[in-house]
Design goal:
Layout lengths: L1 E8 L2 E6 L3 E6 L2 H8 L5 E5 H4 L6 H4 L2 H4 L2 E4 L5 H9 L4 E4 L15 H11 L4 E4 L2 E3 L5 E5 L4 E6 H8 L5 E5 L12 H10 L3 E5 L5 H9 L3 E4 L1 H4 L5 H7 L3 H4 L3 E6 L5 E7 L1 H10 L3 E4 L4 E4 L8 E8 L6 E7 L20 H13 L12 H17 L3 H21 L4 H13 L1
Parallel strand pairs: 1-4, 1-13, 4-5, 5-6, 6-7, 7-11, 11-12, 12-13, 14-19
Antiparallel strand pairs: 1-2, 2-3, 8-9, 9-10, 14-15, 16-17, 18-19
Helix pairs in contact: 5-6, 5-17, 7-8, 14-16, 15-16
Length: about 425
């Protein structure tokens, strides 16, 4: 997997050389998050919080629902981690507090890690094992925004924290921001020492390095190389896949935003590249032995929202927005299951009625006053319903009118579900 980094400082997206020297600065964090999300999870790092110089939380918050984000920087308590998860963070990256005890000594803080696991679960925890070379090919853990050496050996520290983390983020601090190439030696040692996922960062500047990391079974986090145009994310994504295992073709599963499987196919390197280039899902046709964009002739394209590799990097999941039926037979899916009626689908129908009212459409007559009146009326009828069938009927009415109300107000079903998700994770 390829993870693009959004480092934030003073309300701006920045790239620093070795964590200190400002190299570039941008102010389009939301735009970057939406773009980077097509290729993999996005690492959002609050550098000010990491260095104890403030917080960029108000800039970070909206990014967590715009992309699948892993968040780090200045997270010092389980409560802070839980709050970020409730706001939409997929995973939490922790560094300095993991390697300092309450008494200020440099050691693995197992009590802190145990509390984190209890609060957000091991599957959401990434420990940042940021390290500098300390001579003889050995690397030592550094903390406090890479300013303070701890004296802790990288490999020993990694083994000690693995029981509490689903992933380790290794940053080769000596190479970070330099684009001089990552030191693969400590990565190889890490891979041999632990079995959890490893993401490597620091100095990566070529596709060959990404392929080498993938061959080790490691993910890669990119920053400077993306922002300077040295590496294109599409190329990096393709290079990170396990082509050696699959041969020339990788299976691709197309899925609608609400989770329904639409179709499957196969992609070679060309098809994967064209998918990103065109913004619509492309396959390699095995019968015709050529590139094929779904919907090329019928117009029933599959607009790409995001592409993800599985844990072995030998299969792809494409989340897409279908423009019509996915199957050549005219069925919504190639598995003949029909389109599932979801809340999102209901809102899409209502929104279309509002945009393009047709004669006799009741939905089109629902102005703000009438729809609010109907919501209150149906809420009362749900409360007074007695039988099972009556409750089903009245609840359906209430959901319909409530959906019409939020649609008129410009609120999406996704936003409502995100709020429920936030409350569930609080």
């Amino acid at each position: 997997m390829v993870i693009a980094s959004i480092d934030v400082q003073d309300g701006k997206v920045v790239q620093l050389k070795q964590g200190r020297e400002l190299v570039l600065q941008r102010d389009n964090a939301a735009e970057l998050a939406a773009e980077f999300d097509r290729y993999g999870e996005v690492a959002v790092i609050d550098l000010d919080a990491a260095m104890g110089k403030g917080s960029n939380i108000e800039l970070v918050k909206p990014l967590l629902r715009k992309a699948q984000c892993r968040v780090g920087g200045g997270i010092r308590t389980p409560e802070q981690a839980k709050e970020l998860v409730s706001l939409g963070a997929q995973k939490i990256i922790l560094g300095s507090p993991v390697f300092r005890t309450p008494g200020g000594e440099f050691a693995v803080n197992t009590a802190f890690l145990e509390a984190l696991v209890k609060t957000i679960g091991r599957e959401r925890i990434i420990v940042a094992v940021d390290a500098k070379g300390s001579g003889g090919g050995n690397y030592g853990i550094v903390v406090d925004g890479w300013k303070t050496p701890t004296g802790l050996d990288l490999i020993a520290a990694a083994k000690a924290v693995e029981p509490y983390a689903s992933e380790l983020l290794f940053t080769c601090v000596d190479r970070e921001g330099t684009m001089t190439g990552i030191d693969l030696n400590p990565v190889e040692k890490l891979r041999a020492a632990v079995s959890c996922t490893i993401t490597a960062a620091g100095g990566v500047s070529t596709l060959a390095e990404i392929e080498a990391l993938a061959a080790l079974g490691c993910d890669v986090q990119l920053g400077m190389a993306i922002y300077t145009g040295k590496i294109a994310l599409a190329d990096a994504f393709i290079a990170s896949l396990n082509w050696k295992k699959t041969g020339a073709l990788i299976p691709v599963i197309a899925q609608s935003p609400d989770g329904q499987v639409l179709m499957t196919g196969f992609a070679d390197r060309e098809a994967a590249a064209e998918t990103f280039k065109r913004g619509s899902l492309c396959f390699h046709s095995r019968t015709r032995n050529k590139l094929w964009m779904k919907g090329e002739t019928s117009g029933h394209t599959l607009k790409l929202l995001r592409l993800r590799a599985d844990c072995d990097r030998d299969a792809l999941l494409a989340v897409v927005e279908p423009a019509g039926p996915a199957c050549h037979t005219g069925a919504y899916t190639c598995f003949d299951t029909g389109r599932r009626y979801t809340w999102e689908y209901l809102q899409a129908i209502i929104a279309e009625r509002f945009r393009n009212p047709t004669p006799g459409s009741y939905t089109a007559t629902l102005d703000d006053a009438l729809v609010r009146e109907k919501v209150m009326e149906e809420a009362e009828e749900v409360c007074t319903a007695k039988t099972h069938d009556e409750i089903v009927w009245e609840a359906a009415d209430l959901l319909y009118f409530t959906t019409a109300l939020i649609t008129r107000a410009g609120v999406t079903v996704g936003e409502v579900l995100d709020e429920l998700d936030r409350r569930h994770k609080k």
